Amino acid sequence: MAGPGRRGNGTSGTGGGNRPPGGPEDVTLVGPATPGTSGPTGAGDLPSGGPGGVPAGTGGAAGADAVLLGFVRAVRAAGVDASTERAYAFLRAVDVVRPGVRADVYWAGRATLCGGHDDLERYERVFAAYFGPSGEPARQVVRHAPPPRLRLVVRDAPAGSRAPGESEPAGPPTAALASATEVLRHRDVAELDAADRAHLNRLLAAFALSGQTRRSARRRPARRGDVDPRRTVRELLRRGGEPARLRRHARVDRPRRIVLLVDVSGSMAPYADALLRFAHAAVRGGRTEVFTIGTRLTRVTRELSHRDPDLSMAALAEAVPDWRGGTRLGELLREFLNRWGQRGMARGAVVVLLSDGWERDDPELLGAQMRRLHGLAHRVVWANPRKARPGYAPLAAGMAAALPSVDDFVEGHSLAALERLAAVVRGAETERVPVVRVRGAERA
Description:
- By secondary structure, this protein is an alpha/beta fold.
- The chain has 13 helices and ten strands.
- 37% of the residues lie in helices and 12% in strands.
- Helix 1 (60-77) crosses helix 5 (179-185), helix 2 (84-96) packs antiparallel against helix 3 and helix 6 runs parallel beside helix 8.
């Protein structure tokens, strides 16, 4: 095959077709080497044999499957209905095609994980962010553009291409697609450097957050459902009494409103930017209200409505006057309930508090307002980034006073934790782990 570093049995990058979202036509994706090797593999094809292009029996297939399942979770967090059956079909499809070729991974996921036209834009955005080359921003994909045809190969370095003096690897490499992204999903946001934060921001931009669906009182015309007597009678009158087909209608399922209360006090400074970008993705999905809490209560839904997350963060910086200040959770929660919540914003909604629960004022006031909130909202969820730390216990006065009125107590320190939070908000029972069911009979 023409070109340096290409094998004869690889796919040619010169054929016609579009490129994958977020990177060139041929890109090298190399994961960490196994213990005992001299270092990461070179820019070469991964050996064939298992999912992810890793030889069977080396332990790399399980790692590649974990990476692919991480991609499925990211797609699901972006709003694509990627069920367990679709995830299993995706893994089988990748195993059948060439797992080291990015084009085949893309089309395998597109064919198995997407269920309609609305899923294509989300899928391509997540694929560009998840498998995009490190250090290079993923390109935005126009919704009505032709679907990309991918030619991306993970290759073994040919014999003799190692630098002089480089030793032969002691064992077969264990490599996985986008392993850096999978590791990033579980890292604490407070420990990320600038490059990792930029990668995290691209992944958060592909997020989608929707509330648990509810049966609306409104009805709409439908092919199946109850008979609509008014439309049926009007149809009979229009036909002059001649027999006509019965008109039917059905109730409309609508997602519940989501209210996010984001703590921007000094103790939450390492997590505030990531949580607000998470809120930006939620606002973009619709029916979401966002407030910042610290020493003041600020409604920032309008500032987060920009399509570009960086523009939203710039507008937010000018609108919020109490960055890295103190925390007055009880007083600000009472202000929210008096001005907005009791007038309808919190009624039947899913209210999410993203805070570490450190309260400077009277914790009894916070407990009383949380009881008011729980009586209005459909569900109260508290995401605490400190919960993931070893040995954590909700001993802070504010957190202890609020917990009896919380339905779900979850973590909020990493991308994976935010994905689980999104699953709890939309009512995905199968993904509620690890979640503390505070008011229920079980406690994880």
